[in-house]
Amino acid sequence: MYPFASARLASPRRLLAEPSLTASLVFSITQERAKLLRGQPVQPVGPRGLLYVQQRELAVTSPQDGSISVLGSEDATTCHIVVLRHTGTGATCLTHCDGSDTQAEVPLILKSLKSLSGCGQDGRLEVHLVGGFNDDRQLSQKLTSQLLSEFDRQEDDIHLVTFCVTELNDREENENHFPVICGIAVNIKTAEIFRASFPERGPEEELRSARSLTGGPMINIYDAKTEQLHIGPYFWMPFPHVDFWLQQDDKQLLENLSTSPLAEPPHFVPNIRSTLMFLKKYPFPGNSLFPGNRALLYKKNEGGLWEKISSPGS
Q: Whole-model pTM?
């Protein structure tokens, strides 16, 4: 994952509570669920019916969606992937959090889900947290605590169902620590959460990565009512010293532009280099990327693949 600003630690309270269960039993149950999730094989998820969520993005939809059947995200090393679901409506939100502004992101996650579902009918809000490991800088531990604390602050009752983060998602090899699970998906129709990888992560993968790398905040990228993916319009300043970074070898990029160099997947450096080249080509996004300052809109075609459609008013 990309570097981010850390925040203070906090302690979970009400979030972990179930009226009929002791805290120790709740922890035992979540430990067992984490173990079962870690033991799953990784399932490759193809592009048909998939909405891939990048770092600092969220997407919300429901079982009534005729275009999207799976939400997913990957490459969470110190990052955490969060799934919030309402059991009554089936409305589901998936987001990829890096700790940049957890205090603002958790209310946004909740608001985005409730704006779709209303959450008025019977059911409850359930949250699933996956990602992180025992990294040397303890960034995972901080993010875990931030997320628990912020979910606990919300007025709604939110039930922690899956807790596979940091220590519970850690493996050790040659005295180095690595995350067990880096990617998950959720089936919107069945509510199944499973380990996943994603050969395709479009559309506009470089553009979306550029927004994240330049410090863009968490955003909702999908309109479930129109079943359209909205990209932009974005604005960023020229990336500092982009030519310098492009001249560096792979080792330097890995060590300086990742929060967890040893744990990154093989494609991390090529992706970073590609994103830096994109930022050099487009130091100001403007009309060159968003004609008329309009969003780029995509919709799934009959084959379940993303297809670009006309922007509003064009």
A: 0.90
Give the start-end residues of each E strand in 18-110.
Answer: 43-44, 50-52, 57-61, 70-73, 80-86, 92-97
Q: Tokens at residue 50, please?
A: 């998939």
| Burial 154-188, CB ≥16 within 10 A → b, else e | beeebebbbbbbbebbbeeeeeebbbbbbbbbbbb
Q: Which run of H or of E encompasses 106?
A: helix 102-117
> Helices in 118-238 by DSSP H: which ranges?
139-153, 205-213
CA distance 169 to 180: 5
Which segments of the chain are extended strands (E)? 43-44, 50-52, 57-61, 70-73, 80-86, 92-97, 125-131, 158-165, 170-173, 176-179, 184-187, 193-197, 219-220, 222-223, 228-231, 296-300, 306-309
Question: Residue 52: beta bridge partners?
Answer: 72
> Cα(129)–Cα(148) distance, rounded to whole angstroms?
9
Per-residue pLDDT of the chain (314 residues; tens, 9 = 90+): 544 222 222 333 345 444 444 455 556 667 888 999 999 999 999 999 999 999 999 999 999 999 999 999 999 999 999 999 999 999 999 999 999 999 999 999 999 999 986 656 688 999 999 999 999 999 999 999 999 999 999 999 999 999 999 999 999 999 999 999 999 999 999 999 999 999 999 999 999 999 999 999 999 999 999 999 999 999 999 999 999 999 999 999 999 999 999 999 999 999 999 999 999 999 999 889 999 999 999 999 999 999 999 654 44
Q: Which helix (H) or strand (E) holds 24?
A: helix 23-38
Q: Is the peptide bond before 283 cis (omega within 30 degrees of 0)?
A: no
